[in-house]
Task: structure prediction
Amino acid sequence: MGLPLMPGLEDLYREIILDHYRSPRNRGELESPPARRVEGFNPLCGDEIVVTLDVNDGKVSDIKIAGTGCSISQSSASLMSAAVKGKPVTEVRDLITTFKGMMSIHGSTLPSGNSGSAGGDSGAGGDSGASGDADVETLEPRAIDIDALGELAALQGVVKFPVRIKCATLSWNTLAQGLDESENEPAA
Amino acid sequence: MAELSHPSPPLDVATLRKDFPLLAVEVHGHPITYLDSASSAQRPVQVLDAMREYDETTHANVHRGVYSIAEEATRRFEAARHNVGRFIGAPNPAREVLFTKNATEGLNLVAHTWGRTHLHPGDAIVLTEMEHHANIVPWHILAAERGLTIRWIPVDDQGELVLGNLEQLLEGAKLLGITCMSNVLGTLNAVSEIAEAAHAAGAVVVADGAQSVPHLPTDVAGLGVDFLAFSAHKMLGPTGIGVLWGRDELLSDLPPFLGGGEMILDVRKDGFTPNDIPWRFEAGTPPITEAIGLGAAVDYLRGVGMEAVRAHEIALTTYAMDTLTDRFGRDIRIYGPPDPSARGGVLSFAYRDLHPHDISQILDEYGVCVRAGHHCAKPLMRQLGVNATARASLGLYNDQSDVDRFADALAEAGAFFG
Result:
């Protein structure tokens, strides 16, 4: 590519993100039933994601991702699938919390968080979504254990681009919904 | 058409651009390339100055005070109404031009007042598949409340309305809602012919002029519609004000929209008497400074000449479509009519398999502003078979160098995502 990206944009489009965008992991749908199938939508851009997952013996034994979206939503979903597959549900829930904490608007507490782009730490008002701020949670500023996120830490640059946060969190919210449903109706 | 039938000389865009302070800013070290005028247009100093001058010398509430500046504020506010009315060829601006918040509020006003008065369970209304949500959702709300049926005029692969079954669709319908120009495809609809068919079927016609009024000569008499809504901020004016034009005989019979001050002649403990039109629909203190700004925007557009604006935008749309096709060939798909004279300067496109958000993000790196998303036209997006498009839209202050920088940045986006 021929451009010297501005620092923030380099953070947004890390190589690992582009890799997962070009070669998404765990792509497709599991047969449902028995798998649980959950759809998520981003009303801002019309993107949709389909998460199918098997939960057995308290573990996410398998997961697949379908749907369409931008590089951020697709790579986030791919990275998520790789990170949670085979993991105990409790661990997965912790990861969701940690990831969404990293994506919160108070991400300026992150080690590398310079608020390079619009919004920065301007609070929920920095999110341009017209449809509520459910995804941009104003969690209390707290230390995020970036090390626990492994490859997922590559997505931390997204927080500097408030419009794109919903892209990154779409698959995670969809997964959380699937886990909730599994817990509430375990027989399904 | 009414005022600008003489041929106009080509626009001197280089000179005209100097009137727009925002076009001088830099984004990420690049001169801004503003290609989102279909979303909101930039404003010339003439508009900004007029608003400031009014605020600094004349501001007071309108239609209330008997002191000098209040009378002058009222005079200027009503002069702006008259000015906008003349701009769209309104036969009687003093009664037929309603100030609203924006085009969306104007369309909602029609649904609330005309719709609630004239539409009853089982009635049918007709919309086109290319309407903006602003001319869909108010009707959905009313349809759910009143038990109405909505029929749809389809859109073909080239982004044109399919009018083969128009008479059947209109048969027995009470209302037709139609956009003059698609905000996604740029398609210019044959509104006057379609309105004639609608009237023959006994339907009232509500037109969305949000995209057309800023870019084409407008003459409501020739257009043959009954209501026309548009927004100031897409026509070089400020946000917070729009216009609903309606035929006197229709407006006169309608109940008020919002209740409050200004919209009444008398209020008693047992009821109220509504004011005459247009004030009946303008409850509360209106956007006065913004009306002054809209008047100045209309003066500016009239000075440039709407025929000249249209000619410039056809030429630039032609250049943009040729440039994109020459440079990107089969990698780019431009939606909407292929003939630039059949469309406005709105170019929705797909580039390879890149997501519009990613395209827009990289373009921003080069100071190029385009819109990415569903453009508040989801039924149309479904018809096109896409979730979102990227959209570059042209205005009178854009030139070929804007198109070239846009194409250069698009090439970089392609290289970046490999």
Remarks:
- Chain A touches chain B at residues 1-3, 5-6, 9, 12-13, 18, 21-22, 44-48, 68-72, 161, 164, 167 (CB under 8 Å).
- Residues 162-184 of chain A form the longest helix (23 residues).
